[in-house]
Amino acid sequence: MKWAVVLCALVAISECNVKISLIKGKTARETLMEKGLWEEVSKKFPYNPMAKFVQQNGDEGMTNDADMAYYGVISIGTPPQSFKVIFDTGSSNLWVPSVYCSSPACQNHAKFNPSQSSTFKWTNTPLSIQYGTGSMTGRLVYDTVTVGGLAVNQQLFGISETEATFMSYMAADGILGLAYPSLAASGATPVFDNMVTQGLVSQNLFSVYLSSNSAEGSVVSFGEIESSYYTGQITWIPLTSETYWQVKMDSVTINGNVVACSGGCQAIIDTGTSQIVGPTSDIANMNAWVGTTSNPDGQNSVNCNNLANTPEITFTLNGNAFTLPATAYTSQSYYGCATGFGNGGTDQLWILGDVFIRHYYTIFDRAGNYIGLALAA
Fold this sequence. Notes:
This protein is mainly β. The chain has two domains: 2-209, Acid Proteases (Cathepsin D, subunit A, domain 1, Beta Barrel); 227-376, Cathepsin D, subunit A, domain 1, CATH 2.40.70.10. It contains eight helices and 27 strands. The protein has helices spanning 2-9, 28-34, 38-44, 104-107, 191-197, 280-290, 326-329, 354-357; strands spanning 18-24, 60-61, 70-76, 81-88, 94-97, 121-131, 134-147, 150-162, 174-177, 205-209, 218-222, 230-238, 241-242, 245-254, 257-260, 265-269, 276-278, 293-294, 300-302, 313-317, 320-324, 330-333, 336-339, 341-343, 350-352, 360-365, 370-376. The strands form three sheets. Strands 13, 14, 15, 16, 17, 20, 21, 24 and 25 form a nine-stranded mixed sheet that branches. A six-stranded mixed β-barrel has the order 3-4-9-5-8-7. The longest helix has 11 residues, at 280-290.
């Protein structure tokens, strides 16, 4: 790490830190609803938000999230081929579709063509990513991956040969994982770890700002904390596991009453999950306290005109309270306003996804193994 900082000192700092603009695009749910297909597809491919956190035989776990909206553009190869990817702190591998994939999901996405890159190298290592409703299979390969103008040399990544059908409804082409190396399938070094090793960033951290309403303005910043994206002080929370970005959650309260996570639980901060996900009974209790009703979309709705009187929800992490107003944990659709809470089944693990991160600027500190949270500007 020391030599990486020295290298950055020899060049302009702007060349050692990079800010990637994220696009807030249309979600798969919105696209399917517009086509009148949501009910049919959601029954055929039920959402299992905990699937990505269950490792099977060393394979990476992922899931199909119908509400994922944020993606950024990277390029791979020489000359560069561009791909839209989800920057996912809940996984560790980079993968994109390839010209060798004949699955329906590959036909409406950008596909990497190895024969068009002079820096490409094959390996004999297969890659398998388990989804909640299927899988992606392919092969690990090497090439130059460029993120915001920073060229990561000899990056090991996956190219797909088959993909789960639900991916055809997603805006993003692939995934760029930002969790710890221990989660990476087949021992592939994650992109951010190579950024650090190759001296491309001045600090061993990255940060995320997600805009609430605008299609633009969201960013992932590699190597720096940007003060313009938050107000007040940063609260630093130590990780309880250096695999996912996992922290201790003490409780979830509404109006001073513990409504979930009674006695404490574990929570993962995950940019690759759209909702706040918890055990079925806890999520049901939260929705009951908020006063929701079920809508035809299968979500829990609240009165859009009464959000000012809908209670705040407080998540206490390692003794620090982080409160979400109703405007932060609800979203508006054709059917009205719905809460952004997902059913995680019987698993006691929680996921604090984009619903939480939109309200709190989040810093992922690999050097100290901390999560930093500050109120988003």
